[in-house]
Request: fold
Amino acid sequence: MNPSAEFVEQGMSPQNVKRASCMSVITLAYQSLGVVYGDLSTSPLYVYKTTFSGKLSLHEDDEEIYGVLSFIFWTFTLIALVKYIFFVMSADDNGEGGTFALYSLLCRHAKLSILPNQQATDEKLSTYATEASADTWQSSALKSFFEKHPRFHKVLLIFVLLGTCMAIGDGVLTPAISVLSAVSGVKVKITGLHENYIVIISCVILVGLFSLQHHGTNRVAFMFAPIVTAWLLCISSIGIYNIFRWNQHVFCAISPIYMLKFLKNTGTEGWVSLGGVVLSITGVETMFADLGHFSSSSIKVAFTFVVYPCLILAYMGEAAFLSKHHEDIQRSFYKAIPESVFWPVFIVATFAAVVGSQAVISATFSMISQCCALNCFPRVKIVHTSSKIYGQIYIPEVNWMLMCLCLAVTIGLRDTNMMGHAYGLAVTTVMFVTTCLMALVMIIVWKKKILTAVAFLLFFGSIELLYISASVYKVPEGGWIPLVLSLIFMAVMYLWNYGTMKKHQFDVENKVSMNRIVSLGPSLGMVRVPGIGLVYSNLAIGVPAVFGHFVTNLPAFHQVLVFVCVKSVQVPRVSENERMLISRVGPKEYGMFRCIVRYGYKDLQQENYDFENRLVSGIVQFVETEEESASKLTSESFGEFESTAFKCLVDPDHPYTSSSQKEKMVQSTCDIQAEVAKTGSERPENTQLKHESLRILKAKESGVAYILGHSHAKAKKSSSIIKKFAIDVVYTFLSKNSREPDVVLNVPHTSLLEVGMIYYV
Reply:
């Protein structure tokens, strides 16, 4: 697979940067330290402490400490370095990474998407391109299997959502365990400090962290890289110091023999303790998820040459200290710090914990935004916090929800060991989901042999299942937290997706017949008043039921009618010049058009420009080029009387916006009038085209009205009690408390008309 296109944070698109110079790679690698590796680099705060909790603390001899270090070294090397750096980082989706990127690749190559309104024209998007290599018999067989069993499309989505929900749980646990672990270090110097004060200080830091989210990470991002860099240098230097002072033979623990001895000597207790070892790789998924903000090469350079050696030295140094100080097993990290540098390291550790928490919180915002795009989460307010750095967002509802959950975990558990048990289960589940998706990507996308994919799945999957089994054993001791959180989020996501898909099914089954529309004549059997009417619908094809319901109660409509469908496409982003598809509905004299507005799962479905004028500009361009393009465009049947879809190539830098654009609009109207007067004796079809353009522009000057359907779902009387509760109570509650479509679409309230409808599921 070709390396992903790379782009810097200053808003450059992946397609604009093909090759990064050595200097730019180093610069990006430095910047990635603060954003990507904050969570991973703070793991030494609690790994040994959590691993040697419980009954394993009774076996504190050197051989067992070496065994734990051996497990940490090989886990960190095989999972973080080999799996993620050498394999997973290559499976990007147009430069984007994360679980949704893998899912998107599979959806495009194997037609697995369950998103409604998918059309053949979507495959012509520049970011939709799939590899031209021929399918192998393995990939063909797997695609055929998914094609014959559509229910597995839903199973795959649920599997992806499971990983996403566990990652959201990670967003709750990371700030709690990182901040509490960092602050608890003060007890090493102030031994009489009560635990309640540690919890209060941690809660104050957490409240401050979440309260600053609305400013956006770009305001403090310049501090992130220096803090994490200073932290990595501190812990690696202390590690080297401890190795040479306490035990220079600790390097022997690299031998895998110590892992076998550890399991043999400790038995079940050693196996259960692996739930603490896995905390050493918390944050590796962030490397892949944040690929879109940096480049693959920069993240690989930062990890291979900075993060990996620094953390390995830190773990070795702490093991060397423990080999001579068995009694400090629960306070080993801060006890291993030399007296002279304790307080500076403590301050840096606290800042590093905050930075690591910030990265996970931002990733949670991104995941929720992607779930909204896939119709798997209620509509929430999404704020773009940076005009320069694409993708930095803030979601108020999610932010305060995370804060409350973090405070509840911190106050309720008060113990980093119990938090670690919960944390380990969430992390390992997300990694296992990635491994399974990667195996499918190898067969379907990369066209590798099935034996290669199976070997990958068995090797890395077995390691992750080993850690999952150890974490599951700790469910009663804190591991239940991510399970409960993920089940709640899964229920919300599945129910919202179910209700949304049922609404779309209702719209498809109740759309107005085009034959009926045509039979009414150009006036559509009602009064056509000056202006443009925008009817928002979930349908990319056909006339929505909301239109029929509207004209039944109010038999008048605008001179120009446009059906607008805002939909998501299974790509990360859609460029501005490919955003809109314009087509004509019915004969020309009916004055009806359709506009399909397309977004990727990383795009924000909020327009920052004047949508009205851009739309009118696109329709005028469509009308004026329709005749010229008729001989070039292939006829595409939509099953009705719609004409061929035309990709509206509106220049995003020169839309009809602001007051100056109104002058341009008037000027263009005068130009068309003048041309119509001049061409009165010319070809009648040209005159007709100019008249139609003039009619559309005049309709725009008369005003634009927005017509939205306000649908309410109700369970059928024959439904079970559980379904009635799910639809009539839970789904209705989510619908009433989610963002209204007019707010998401940025519709002006003075021009809004809502049509109420009820659909039964």
Observations:
- DSSP finds 26 helices and nine strands in the chain.
- Residues 1-13, 15-20, 633-670, 679-683 have pLDDT under 50 and may be disordered.
